[in-house]
């Protein structure tokens, strides 16, 4: 069996588990884990937005919580204040987050390294404090709750709504799955190759004719879109929006999930978010200071698996199933052929 087939089998098993989780999970654990798994999928989408920027473009963002919060407030304000239905509110949340990503990205992607990270934190803090102070619209410290509107209505009394746990679960799975599929298509497209080229060497990318600024801005907006979808889903999941989810510590958690799962891998954010949220849920019942253990586990993973659990999996599969060594990421890392010595010359 080739490594490609092993990876394909892993994707199939993951998809089968996700599709059957409402029936499989209650056989082994409490039924509330179905809701927790739904939450894991939503949070993994936020981590995927970090992964898109950091793993494929080389930009470390601590401001993805801003777009997550915009998605939440777009849904909550749309339903509670404007009176929108389910689908218009969902679209409004995504539009608000993506638009904010475009505005912030115009300024942010002009910078790199720690300057980029700092400006994303600044944007997040600005709108966090704005949401706290704009209480008539956002609810301030109390947040903004709303009643769930129906997705579809048939006749007078028949409707489909996320108040049904099964409908809610599969709606979340469908939206998250479509986002990951869209991300996979983008990464396999010429745009995806351009993203990696810019990450490896932006100077050379500009010399071969790539518009580095536009490519980074496109990636930033796409990442904002993913975070906005996650925030909109989380608003429907909790029937609530709060400014606390716009604070930069939420972005920090997403960064940790992405790094633990493996940046530069498609499903690494799912692995990271699932592992750390599971540890949080289990250890919090056993010890008050469970975050210390979580921190130790994170440190061990970073030290012994610097490419994350996703990178560890790829290396293990390649070793066990005869995978070929990956080509060097940069041209200067490739081995150079030793020139043959001419007559009367010594070998170098």
Fold blueprint:
Layout: H1 3-28, H2 32-56, H3 64-82, H4 86-108, H5 113-133, H6 135-138, E1 144-145, E2 152-154, E3 158-160, H7 165-188, H8 190-200, H9 202-207, H10 212-238, E4 240-241, H11 248-261, H12 268-286, H13 290-304, H14 308-320
Helix pairs in contact: 1-2, 2-7, 2-10, 2-11, 2-12, 3-4, 3-10, 4-10, 7-8, 7-10, 8-10, 11-12, 11-14, 12-13
Model description:
The chain is mostly helical. It has a single domain, classed as Orthogonal Bundle (ABC transporter involved in vitamin B12 uptake, BtuC). The chain has helices spanning 3-28, 32-56, 64-82, 86-108, 113-133, 135-138, 165-188, 190-200, 202-207, 212-238, 248-261, 268-286, 290-304, 308-320; strands at 144-145, 152-154, 158-160, 240-241. The strands form 2 sheets. The protein has a two-stranded antiparallel ribbon. A hairpin with a 3-residue loop joins strand 2 (152-154) and strand 3. Helix 7 (165-188) packs antiparallel against helix 10 (212-238). The radius of gyration is 22 Å and the shape is globular. Residues 323-348 have low confidence and may be disordered.
Name the features.
ABC transporter involved in vitamin B12 uptake, BtuC; mainly alpha; 348 residues; 3% strand; two-stranded antiparallel ribbon; two-stranded antiparallel sheet; disordered C terminus; 14 helices; single chain
- The secondary structure category is mainly alpha
Estimate the mean pLDDT confidence: 86
Beta-strand fraction estimate: under 5%
| CATH structural architecture | Orthogonal Bundle
Q: What gap, in angstroms, lies between the N and C termini?
A: 42 Å
- In spatial order, strands of the major sheet run 1-4
- CATH topology name, in short, is ABC transporter involved in vitamin B12 uptake, BtuC
Model regions low in confidence, pLDDT < 50 over at least 5 residues: 323-348
**What spatial form do the alpha-carbon principal axes imply?**
globular
How many individual domains? 1
Give a quick account of the main beta sheet: strands, pairing sense, barrel closure: 2 strands, antiparallel
The topology string of helices and strands comes to: HHHHHHEEEHHHHEHHHH
Helix content: over 70%
Total beta strand runs: 4
Query: What is the C-level CATH assignment?
Result: Mainly Alpha
Radius of gyration (Å)? 22 Å
Distinct helical segment count: 14
């Amino acid at each position: 069996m080739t490594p490609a087939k092993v990876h394909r089998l892993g994707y199939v098993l993951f998809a089968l588990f996700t599709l059957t989780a409402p029936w499989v999970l209650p056989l082994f654990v409490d039924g509330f884990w179905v809701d927790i798994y739904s939450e894991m999928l939503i949070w993994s989408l936020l981590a995927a937005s970090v992964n898109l920027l950091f793993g494929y473009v080389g930009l470390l963002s601590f401001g993805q919580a801003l777009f997550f919060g915009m998605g939440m407030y777009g849904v909550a304000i749309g339903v509670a204040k404007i009176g929108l239905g389910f689908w218009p509110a969902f679209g409004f949340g995504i539009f608000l987050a993506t638009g904010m990503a475009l505005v912030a990205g115009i300024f942010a992607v002009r910078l790199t390294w720690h300057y980029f990270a700092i400006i994303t934190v600044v944007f997040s803090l600005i709108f966090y404090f704005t949401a706290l102070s704009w209480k008539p619209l956002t609810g301030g410290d109390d947040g903004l709750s709303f009643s769930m509107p129906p997705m579809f209505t048939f006749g007078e009394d028949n409707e489909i709504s996320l108040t049904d746990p099964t409908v809610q679960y599969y709606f979340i799975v469908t939206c998250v799955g479509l986002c990951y599929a869209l991300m996979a298509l983008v990464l396999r497209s010429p745009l995806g190759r351009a993203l990696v080229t810019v990450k490896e060497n932006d100077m050379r990318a500009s010399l071969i004719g790539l518009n580095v600024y536009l490519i980074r801005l496109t990636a930033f907006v796409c990442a904002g879109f993913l975070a906005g979808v996650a925030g909109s889903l989380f608003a429907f999941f909790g029937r609530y929006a709060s400014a606390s989810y716009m604070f930069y510590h939420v972005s920090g958690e997403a960064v940790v999930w992405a790094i633990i799962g493996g940046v530069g891998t498609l499903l690494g954010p799912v692995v990271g978010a699932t592992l750390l949220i599971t540890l949080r849920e289990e250890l919090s019942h056993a010890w008050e200071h469970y975050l210390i253990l979580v921190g130790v586990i994170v440190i061990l993973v970073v030290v012994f698996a610097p490419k994350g659990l996703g990178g560890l999996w790829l290396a293990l599969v390649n070793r066990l199933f005869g995978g070929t060594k990956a080509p060097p990421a940069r041209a200067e890392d490739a081995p150079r052929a030793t020139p043959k010595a001419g007559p009367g010359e010594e070998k170098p």
